[in-house]
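Page 42, continued from yesterday. The earlier attempt failed because a stray header line got pasted into the input along with the sequence. Redoing it now with the clean sequence only.
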Amino acid sequence: MNHDLFNQIDRVIHERARLAIMSSLAASRGLTFRELRDLLKLTDGNLSVHLRILQEAGYVSVTKAFVDHKPLNTIELTAPGRISFRKYLDSLESLVKSHKPE
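This time it went through. C-alpha cells are written below.
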C-alpha cells in the first residue's frame, strides 16, 4: 500500500455520512436540511453533527431562514469545500491507480 497516497485522503470528508453529504451537495446547487436528511436517510441529530464538522472545516455553509414561520436551513458547498472535495476525489483516484496491475 502506498502510505503517502493514503495519508493524502481528507479524513473530514472520508467518513461515510460526510462523504455522502459532500457528494450530494456537489451534485446540486444546495439542499435543505430536510432534503439531505431524507435523501441520505440520516436522523436529524446525526446529520446535524456531520454538518457541524463540515462547517467547522469550512466545507459547507448553512443559511438559516424562515418560510411560513417554519425554519428552513439550506446547505451548500463553499468554494473551499468544492476544492477539497475535488482533491479528495483526485487522491482516491491516485490511490486506486497505484494498486492497478501493470
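Notes: The mean pLDDT is 92.
Reminder to self: strip header lines before submitting.
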